[in-house]
Design goal:
The protein is an alpha+beta fold. It contains six helices and 13 strands.
Length: 289
């Protein structure tokens, strides 16, 4: 940029140097008889001669002619070198900043992984205590149905789906650590980023429920739940969608808080309205699938 600014300043001073007809000879031996300089540009001169009009670059002219038109190759080269050096420093600063960012992300990922390991241990211990307590509590029944409304406005009912019951406190210990770990992995922008935004990632850690039940062919389930306390039900399902020229599999995940509130029976359906991928619901996680 400085080079071009300098060149433009020089141009203003060169208007008086536009000569009348003269002979110009390049360093390669090309000669222009009775040439007239009609315009001076930052990198050369435009001349008219008997053969027409042509631009001759300063690097093709003798140094005395260059100087006459205010072209100083040493100065310009120094300015270019300074510009290259400045650009090199800028690139080095960007590389250093990127390296420092990557190191911070790496450290963040290590911390998130350690936190997840600790939270998983706490989750498992809390689940064991909840499972022992479950055996001696008064229970009621949570019933419901798992279904989704399709594009054809028909309900697709999921049979043979496991509905798992967890105590609420252990889930509350685990979910924030899972989200923090997932966010650190997403920041790495690897091919696995989509997995960490999916229900499959969260559900891969939900083991050893205190109780479970399976839906019937109509998608209905009944599961025993303590009449007091806060709990969570988890379920995942999939279905094949036929589309020309090829179909695809849709995946569904639910992680819903439940409580009988000291009643003998309550109903909790799992549908499009409370999927983990549906915003504005009571779902304990928000996923992209």
């Amino acid at each position: 940029m400085k080079y071009w600014q300098t060149a433009l300043i020089v141009l203003a001073a060169l208007s008086a140097s536009l000569s009348l007809a003269e002979d110009l000879k390049t360093t390669k031996g090309k000669e222009y008889k009775n040439a007239k300089v009609t315009r001076v540009e930052p990198d050369g001169v435009v001349i008219t001669f008997r053969g027409g009009m042509v631009k001759i670059y300063f690097v093709e002219l003798p140094k005395d002619v260059q100087r006459r038109f205010g072209y100083d190759p040493d100065k310009i080269e120094a300015e270019k070198a300074a510009a290259r050096a400045a650009e090199g420093k800028r690139i080095e600063r960007e590389k250093l900043a990127e390296h420092e960012r990557a190191e911070r992300e790496k450290e963040k990922a290590k911390t998130a992984e350690a936190d997840l390991k600790r939270s998983l241990e706490q989750f498992q211990a809390a689940q064991q205590r909840a499972a022992q307590s479950y055996q001696n509590t008064t229970k009621g029944t949570l019933s419901g149905q798992i279904f989704v409304a399709t594009q054809g406005a028909e309900n697709y009912k999921f049979g043979a789906v496991q509905v798992a019951l967890f105590a609420r406190n252990p889930i509350d210990m685990l979910v924030p650590a899972l989200k923090n770990f997932a966010d650190s992995k997403i920041q790495e922008q690897t091919e696995e980023s989509d997995f960490y935004q999916s229900g499959a990632f969260y559900f891969s850690y939900l083991h050893s429920p205190i109780q479970s039940a399976e839906t019937d062919a109509d998608g209905r389930f009944r599961i025993e739940v303590p009449r007091t306390g806060s709990f969570v039900i988890a379920a995942q399902a999939e279905r094949w969608v036929a589309r020309y020229p090829a179909g695809y599999t849709e995946h569904y995940y639910w992680l819903q808080p439940v409580s009988l509130e000291d009643q003998q029976e309550r109903t909790q359906n799992l549908s499009n309205k409370n999927l983990t991928s549906t915003t504005g619901t009571s779902s304990l996680i928000l996923t992209q699938d």
